[in-house]
Amino acid sequence: MAILRTPARKGTAAALAAGVLVTGLPAPPASADQPAAEQLYVAPWGKDTWPGTAERPFATPGRAQQAVRARTAGMKADLVVNLRAGTYTLDAPLRLSDETGDSGRNGHRVVYQAHGYGTARQEKVIISGGRRIPGWRPDDRLPGVWRADVGALDTRQLYVDGRRAARPALGKPFPGKVTATKTGYETDSAAPQSWWSPRDMEVLLGFGYAEGRCGVSGISGDARHSVITMDEPCWSLARELYGAEALTGVSDVENSPSFLREPGGWYLDRSRPGHHVLLYLPRPGQDMRRAQVVAPVLESLVTGAGREGRPLHDVGFKGLAFAYATWLAPSEPAGFASAWSMYMRPDGLRTVPGTVAFHRAERLTFEGNTFAHLGAQALEISGNSSHNVVDGNVITDVSDGGILMGVVPPSTKGVNRGNRITNNWINHVGQEYRASSGIWDTATSETTIAHNQVDHVPYSGILTGPSDDLRGIMRKNRVLNNRVFKTNLVLPDGGGIYLRGEQGTSYADGAVIRGNAVDDSKNPEWNVGIYTDDSTNWVTVDRNAVYDYAAAIGGCSEVWGDRPVQNVLYRGNFWDDAVPTWVARREYPGAWPTAEQECGDPAKLRFEHNTLLKPDAPGQACAANAACAAILANAGPLPPYRRTLGIR
Question: How far apart are the first and last CA of the chain?
Fold first, then answer.
C-alpha cells in the first residue's frame, strides 16, 4: 500500500488519425499598447540559408533557434517562431538554456507555435524523433511476416499507420512448475529452450501496485527441465526491491520472434551488429509496400535547463505535436526494476524522464500541444522550476506517465512553486510501464491541478506527494474540479486521486482536494477514489463526487512505522462509501485496513455534511441530486477546451 522503500473516446481516435494534432484555443488579442511581436518562419520547403521570413522561411527548428538566440538580448517585443505545416524530423533533441540566449528578455517572451495558432487556419505541425522505415519485403523464415533492413537502429517502439505496434509476447507466465532462484528461474518444461533469441527476451514481473521487467541472459536445460538465467544487475535489483518470494509473480514473457503470431506485432533482430532487421506481422488489410512505418530513434525531443540564479525563462510552445521518441534504459543489463515511475540502478533510485523535459525553468507555457507516441514520460518540469503553465494539451499513447512535476528522485530537495496544470486531457498513458500515473506532482508548493480529464490509465489518475517522506516541502497545493475515471485498469492499490506525505503544517496551508468527479473505476482487488495513503497529513477533501471504486475514500495508515494518516477533513462530499469485503468497516466512513493488515488506525479525521449515495446505483443518485450533478458538470476541462480537445 505504501511505496517500496529503496473505452476510448472519439477525440483520441480523431487526434491520432489527424496526425496527433489538436487545434489550440483562440489566442487572446494583443493589447493596444503592446508592441507587435517579431515573427520568424520555418517550413519544410524552406532553406536554412534564407532569412526566416514568411516568403523565405528557414527549413529547421534548429536554425530558427539560432536566429532567436541572436535576437533575445535586444528584445523589444515578443518573438514568435511560426512553424508551417509538416513533420520536422530532428537529428538531435532541441536543447534550450538561458546561457545560450534561449530565454525571453526585457519582459518579453519567445514562442514556438504552429502557424495560425488559435485560428481556424491553424496548421498541423509534428516535431518528430522518429525515422521512416521503407523497403519492406516478405521474410523468408516466418510466414506472413515482413522485414526491413535498418542498419544500427535501436528502439523499443514501432508505429505502423499511426498505431503503436505490439512487442511479441508469450501471453502467459513460464510454462510448467516454476521456481525462482538466485540467478533466475527453473521450470520442469523444456519449451523455453525452443524459443528464438533468448537474449532479447524480457520477463514482466508483477507485485501488486508495482511492475518491472528484466532481460534474459540465457536459457539452457535438457528434455525435462529448463534453466532461465536473468540479466544482472537487474535480477539482484529486483530481488532487493520486490523480495525474492515476489519474483514468482511472472505475468508475461516478451520479445522473441517465436512469439510473433498476432497481427500488429513486431520484433527487432539485433543479432548482427550494424545490420539490424525489423520484422512485422501486418494487420488484416495492411499493405507493407504502402504502410507508413515510423521507428522512434531519439530518446528526448526538447529539453531545457537553467542554472542557479539564472533559470531558463519566458518560453512558450503552442499548438505543436511532439511525437515518436523511444527510451532505451530498460534494455540495459540493469533492466527496469520499478515502482511508480521510478526504477533501480546500482547507484540508487532514478525516475523515468520526460520526453520533453525542463529543469530550473520559470514562466514556461505549454498550450494546445499534443504529446503522443512517446517511449518515456511525456512532459517533465522539475529541478527548481516555478510559475510554469501546462494548459489545454492532449497527452495520449505514452509508454509511462503523462506529466511529472516537482522534486524528482533521486533528488530530495528543491523549490517548485506556483505551477499550474489545467484543462488537459490525459488518456491511455502507461502503455508499456504500467505503474505510472496520468499526473504526478511530487513535492511542490502552491501547485494548482485543475479542470483536467484523466481516463483510461493502468494505475493512478492524479498522484500528489513524494515517493519518500520529504517533509517541509509541500504546502498550499490544490487539486480542483478534475474529471477522473477508468483508472487502475491493470494494477491495483492506486486510485483516482492519490495522496501521500506531509501536505502542509495545518489545514490553512495544507492540500485542498475540491470539486473533483472520480468514478467508474472499481478494481476487484483494491483501489480508492480519493486515496489518502501512508503519512498523509493536513488535507481538506471538500465537495467531491466519488463512487464506483473498491473504496470511495480511505488508505493505509502506517502507524507501525510512525507514518499515520492524520488531520484529514472530509466536508460536503458525495460518495457511495464502498468498502471491500476484506476490510472491516469502521464506525466512520472509508476503508482503513487494520494493524493486522500492516496498516493501522488513522488519527484526527473529521467528517462534516457528507452525503451517502445509494450504494447500488450511485451514479443515478448523483445525477438526481442537484449539488452532486453540478460537481459532475463542472469537473474536467472547461467548455471551450472540451471542444478543441475533442472531448464529448
Answer: 35
